[in-house]
């Protein structure tokens, strides 16, 4: 029994030890599996931490792009509040107050150039003589047709006069015949009452008288209608003849228009014809310059087309004197971003003024007003006046800021929003800054 017990104890010990060893191995296996599982999520945890860090940097960090520039390479200007003069400067060319185009009413061959370019002419002076054989033929045909119509009218008048005489003779005979038959009827009427003639003779004389009276009435109506018809026909023929006379006169006047004459007193500025050249009616062959006065024509940017109007004043300086101009006409057509404007002198004119001279004009668009202004600069070409670099108080950095530009003149821009007097801005060109939002200025 004891041995069995001993054997039993001894036999149970190895079993309990074995079971313990198995339990420890299982714990180690479980612990190793959890560690392996956590190790699989480490990359994802790292990515999450990185995303969180980047988000914090984007929200709270200062990541504006910067560019270092040399202070000597940029122009810095001060924002001020002062009187803004609303004007625009442009150059204008002196032109004659009026230019008259030379265009012949009749075409032909150039036979003679009476005057040359640059010659002063009077109204009515001959400039060019033309020749037109077709026009000569038209004149001959018109005169021949007029003569034919005149002969026809005379023949018709003679025929009508003859018809009128014949009708008057016929009417006279009918009147006499009617009177005779009336007298016979009245005699027979008395004789019939006295029973001296038969009833048949009385009735016959009555019928003869009535027939003659009726014929006279009819011929009177016919003569009246014929007279009206002839009068109307004669009037129409006379009108036609009068029109033909006018036509002949006009054709002869066309002959006179082969001499191209000056329409005004002035200077022959251009004459583009050569001897023997064929000229068409209405063709421009030259121009006359009216030198009684002058105007100045300028080209303005289309930006001002809504603000420039007739009556605005302008000035220019020549020598030590200032002269005044006034807007006479604004041309609505815009070409290549420009529109034309004509000025006339208001008051004194410069001495020795000549066509083609150039004046630098200051056109006033409005009255001077107090405004926030900055000097003009090439930054405007890049930004369009929508933003600008503003220096901080230290002057070492400049930050991009949105602004709104209003009016402008040759010296200043009017700032409506975004800047305050006393601030400093960069007004030189921004082409080298690209998309940078902060400038670090090195002295």
Strand content: 25-35%
Number of strands: 22
Order of adjacent strands in the largest pleated sheet: 1-22-18-17-21-2
Look at the structure and give the mean pLDDT: 83
Helical/strand content category: alpha+beta
Order of H and E elements: HEEEEEEEHHEEEEEEEEEHEEEEEE
The rough form would be described as elongated
Q: TL;DR?
A:
With 443 residues, the chain is α+β, with helices and mostly antiparallel strands.
Explain this structure to me?
The chain is an alpha+beta fold and 443 residues long. The chain contains four helices and 22 strands. It has helices at 2-60, 133-193, 199-256, 379-383; strands at 66-70, 76-78, 80-84, 87-102, 108-113, 120-121, 126-131, 259-261, 266-271, 278-279, 286-301, 313-318, 321-335, 338-345, 358-364, 369-375, 387-391, 397-402, 404-408, 412-417, 424-426, 438-442. It has a six-stranded mixed beta sheet with strand order 1-22-18-17-21-2, with no helix packed on it. Strands 4-11-14-13-12-15 form a six-stranded antiparallel beta barrel. A four-stranded antiparallel beta sheet has the order 3-16-20-19, with no helix packed on it. Helix 2 packs antiparallel against helix 3 (199-256). It is elongated and about 165 Å long.
